[in-house]
């Protein structure tokens, strides 16, 4: 039962082929929800992993309706879908946003979870400080199994911060999905007002647990979408899925944004309760999910050479970041000098009168 003293939160989810996470994600959110609005279906870039009329191929829609019928006694869940494809994820996100009636809008991917104590902490912070307009979270990204996480240069340069929670009410607008952006009735972007930026929450050990790279089918379908999305330009995404996620041929490019060095580490923390329930159901055979073997991951993590290589790449990241910042600074200086010189030349050579 949601604490009536806490603010009302609308959770918004867009989902395509959300199995095996669907029911566990909904169960995790339900106690904290004023409402949960789920938008099911595919954008055109996901056509290869969707039905001909734009729906999930793994039974996600049926599971959503079953949850609504069997596990929604307080009528919190709304399921939004259509016959045919959504134009893009922006449209799907706006579909739940325009139906939201909570004091806050909390965007959630179907494969991301939070510790319930952390959710209680966040809602308490919102109750105690109504001036907070946006909250972002530092994510922990799982890779190939529940016991492994991925880290890397790309993540350490801001990509591990996910914008997720926004103040909401009449006149607020969900502007874009990439990145998630909400503006208030005065046209102000909420992260420009009073923003909890993720690093602050990480100091309180509050994280987003993202199981985005866990199962082979899940990763292959994500990469099929990434490889087809014109806005993303990851032409080698499917190759990365086969050669790196499945075969682990490039152990220092294990994040799916593969242009940047990345590496694997063991996870020694605790999973949120509904993730533990999912794991128990898989191990007990109550749900059938193809999992990735961890033998090669274990050999890699036990390798002294990998430990040394990982430490070297981790140490080089701030050096490379400094180099890029210097290059950026010099580029801007040169551009400014060129601009000043051009303006000076124009002043020395005024245009002839007509």
Could you characterize the architecture of this molecule?
The strands form two sheets. Strands 1, 2, 3, 4, 5, 6, 7, 8, 11, 12 and 13 form an eleven-stranded mixed sheet that branches. 37% of the residues are buried. This protein has helices at residues 22-29, 60-70, 89-97, 116-128, 153-159, 199-202, 216-228, 237-246, 273-283, 295-302, 304-348, and strands at residues 9-15, 35-40, 77-80, 104-107, 112-113, 134-143, 148-152, 161-167, 173-177, 180-183, 195-196, 208-213, 262-266. It contains eleven helices and 13 strands. The chain is α/β, with parallel strands linked by helices and 354 residues long. The chain has two domains: 9-211, Spore Coat Polysaccharide Biosynthesis Protein SpsA, Chain A (Alpha-Beta Complex); 212-317, no CATH class. It is globular and about 70 Å long. α1 (22-29) links the parallel β1 and β2.
Named CATH topology of the largest domain = Spore Coat Polysaccharide Biosynthesis Protein SpsA, Chain A
Quickly give the structural class: alpha/beta
CA radius of gyration: 23 Å
Q: Biggest sheet, open or closed, and with what strands and sense?
A: 11 strands, mixed
Number of domains: 2
Question: Could you write a compact summary of the structure shown?
Answer:
The chain is α/β, with parallel strands linked by helices. The protein is built from eleven helices and 13 strands.
List keywords for this structure.
354 residues, alpha/beta, Spore Coat Polysaccharide Biosynthesis Protein SpsA, Chain A, 2 domains, eleven-stranded mixed beta sheet, two-stranded antiparallel ribbon, 11 helices, 13 strands
């Amino acid at each position: 039962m949601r604490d009536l003293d806490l603010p009302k939160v609308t959770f918004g989810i867009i989902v395509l082929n959300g199995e095996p996470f669907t029911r566990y994600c909904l169960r995790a959110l339900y106690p904290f929800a004023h409402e949960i609005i789920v938008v099911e279906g595919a954008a055109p870039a996901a056509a290869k992993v969707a039905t001909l009329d734009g729906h999930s191929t793994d039974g996600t829609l049926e599971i959503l309706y079953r949850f609504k019928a069997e596990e929604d006694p307080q009528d919190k869940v709304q399921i939004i879908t259509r016959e045919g494809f959504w134009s893009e994820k922006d449209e799907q996100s706006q579909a739940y946003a325009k139906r939201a009636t909570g004091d806050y809008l909390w965007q959630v991917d179907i494969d991301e979870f939070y510790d319930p104590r952390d959710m209680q902490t966040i809602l308490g912070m919102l109750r105690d400080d109504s001036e907070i307009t946006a909250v972002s979270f530092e994510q922990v990204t799982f890779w190939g199994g529940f016991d492994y996480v991925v880290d890397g240069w790309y993540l350490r340069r801001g990509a591990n911060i996910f914008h997720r929670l926004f103040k909401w009410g009449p006149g607020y607008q969900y502007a874009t999905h990439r990145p998630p952006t909400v503006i208030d009735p005065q046209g102000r972007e909420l992260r420009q007002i009073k923003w909890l930026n993720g690093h602050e929450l990480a100091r309180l050990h509050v994280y987003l647990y993202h199981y985005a790279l866990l199962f082979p089918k899940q990763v292959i379908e994500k990469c099929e979408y990434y490889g087809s999305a014109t806005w993303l330009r990851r032409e080698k995404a499917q190759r990365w899925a086969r050669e790196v996620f499945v075969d682990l041929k490039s152990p220092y490019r294990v994040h799916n944004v593969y242009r940047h060095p990345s590496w694997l580490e063991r996870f020694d923390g605790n999973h949120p309760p509904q993730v533990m329930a999912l794991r128990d159901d898989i191990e007990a055979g109550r749900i059938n999910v193809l999992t990735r073997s961890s033998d090669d991951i274990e050999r890699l993590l036990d390798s002294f050479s990998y430990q040394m290589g990982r430490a070297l790449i981790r140490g080089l990241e701030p050096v490379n970041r400094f180099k890029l910042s210097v290059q950026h600074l010099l580029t801007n200086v040169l551009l400014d000098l060129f601009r000043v010189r051009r303006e000076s030349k124009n002043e020395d050579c005024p245009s002839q009168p007509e």
